[in-house]
Design a protein that fits this description.
With 481 residues, this protein is mainly β. 12% of the residues lie in helices and 31% in strands. Strand 3 and strand 4 form a beta hairpin.
């Protein structure tokens, strides 16, 4: 990545390819491009060449591996008025289905005191791309002491370089051979870099490592046009992580993935599914509602229910299901039910409801889906309306939570004020009469537990004991990790 005015801008991810056009009929507007009229000798003199590798760097951070390829680029692009062409035999430059899940790398100990900072930036940046699409990076720390371009025990190496600010960092494309697959950081990448963090710069460079082009190659309007040799994965997005702000980009803060970046990565590498589990018990006419799941259009939303008794599974897109309105309701005579649905276009929420049928049904939900934004973290809620019999326990679920956030349970009676259920909450294990983290033990049906999730804890259990029988509402608010 460079702060050069020669670098580009445009949005939605663009995939490295050899054909002309973006598949959507877009044709760049004519303009007198940068470099037009330069002789080969004049152009060659302006291009930076890394002294140790001999690789040429064009458009700020894009490597050209030899002078022959640079001359080809000049003939095809610069002399005719364009900046960069990257041809890969007419095929998309991407990792195979096997390679994409094993993108191993090392981080050179030559970074010295900056080593831990680079490791952290790589972890943050790789996590962003892994959450977006079905790719997996792996830091092989055992290779850090031997981390160079000759190390074939990793897919690529991450090393320091001193090019005196010619670029902040530069990467490679999947089509490059192992000796050319290096992610290099210049001293200038460590600051000051304005609003860009090292993790943000790394997110951009890893975009190249996955095969994505600079967004500005779509048009000459920004003054940063490169070439027509790409295939569009999304519509234009001036805020893309692959879009240089200096070329009329709209991302004025750090370099982060936009929704279109996520959509484009998924179009190339596929969806990445997550699984959540929820469980509990309810009693006819009790009903459990769960907060909406943020889901990606075109992906599969799969809910499998197991358990005992006869709870019923309801799923609906875009709104909470009711007994009369749903997109899936198997309505079997047992707890073994399943809904497997494709998320419709234009919809990004899915709701799950479980009414109880008969006496004391227990259910366990296994929910597999693709988060719309790539991440599952965020505020969640569950709402229960059910009956607790005198002298019995009822489980109100187990919840995955984020340390340091609030976990709140609000129990309200729906019957007589003399009803007396007791609320129990515990981190890490189900509560008992004697072991709990919250037990208000108030006379009457209204009790609240409002707790901060302790460090090191990731699950919370909620139970209610019927000191007397009671019909109750239980509202649970928390933050998913």
């Amino acid at each position: 990545m460079s702060r050069s005015p020669f670098v580009g801008a445009l949005s939605g991810l663009v995939l490295l390819a050899a054909g002309c056009g973006d598949g959507n009929g877009f044709t760049p507007a004519p303009e007198a491009p940068l470099g037009q009229g330069l002789s080969w000798e004049e152009f060659r003199a302006q291009v930076y060449q890394e002294p140790d590798t001999g690789i040429f760097i064009v458009d700020g951070d894009v490597p050209v591996l030899s002078e022959a390829l640079l001359r080809e680029f000049y003939e095809n692009s610069v002399r005719s008025g364009q900046l960069i062409v990257h041809n890969v035999g007419g095929q998309d430059a991407k990792w195979s289905d096997t390679q994409k899940r094993s993108l191993t790398y090392c981080v050179s100990t030559a970074f010295g005191t900056r080593h831990a900072r680079v490791v952290e930036a790589m972890a943050t940046a790789t996590a962003a791309w892994e959450a977006a699409a079905d790719v997996k990076f792996l830091h092989v720390s055992a290779e850090d002491s031997a981390c160079d371009a000759l190390n074939d025990r990793v897919v690529f190496d991450v090393r320091p370089v001193n090019v005196f600010g010619q670029y902040l960092a530069r990467a490679f494309f999947p089509s490059h051979a192992r000796p050319d697959r290096s992610l290099l950081f210049d001293n200038s990448a460590f600051g000051p870099t304005g609003t860009w963090t090292l993790a943000g710069i790394t997110r951009h460079e890893l975009g190249h490592a996955l095969g994505f082009r600079h967004e500005h190659t779509r048009t000459q309007v920004t003054g940063c046009f490169e070439d027509n040799n790409w295939r569009a994965l999304t519509t234009y997005d001036a805020a893309s992580v692959m879009h240089y702000p200096s070329c009329s980009g709209t991302q004025t803060g750090d370099l982060v993935l936009t929704q279109k970046d996520i959509d484009g990565a998924r179009a190339l590498y596929g969806f990445v599914y997550v699984t959540e589990t929820l469980s509990g018990s309810t009693w006819e006419p009790g009903i459990v509602h769960y907060s909406p799941f943020s889901v990606a259009p075109g992906s599969t939303f799969d809910v499998e229910m197991t358990g005992t008794g006869d709870p019923d599974l309801y799923v609906r897109f875009g709104a909470s299901p009711t007994l009369e309105a749903w997109d899936c309701r198997p309505y079997e005579y047992s707890a073994q039910e399943r809904c497997t649905l494709v998320v419709p276009a234009g919809v990004n929420t899915a709701y799950v409801m479980v009414p109880g049928y008969g006496a004391d049904p227990f259910f366990h939900l296994n929910i597999r889906y693709v988060p719309f934004s790539g991440f599952t973290t965020g505020p969640r809620w569950a709402q229960w309306s059910t009956y607790v019999a005198q002298g019995t326990y009822r489980d109100f679920g187990t919840y995955d939570v984020k340390p340091g956030t609030q976990f709140r349970v609000d129990m309200r009676g729906l019957g007589e004020e003399t009803d007396d259920p007791d609320l129990y909450v515990r981190f890490g294990a189900p509560p008992t009469f004697d072991t709990y983290d919250c037990r208000p033990y108030i006379v009457g049906p209204h009790e609240v537990c409002d707790l901060t999730v302790p460090a090191g804890q990731s699950k919370v259990y909620v139970r209610v004991h019927g000191y007397t029988g009671a019909m109750i509402d239980v509202d649970i608010d928390y933050t998913a990790p």
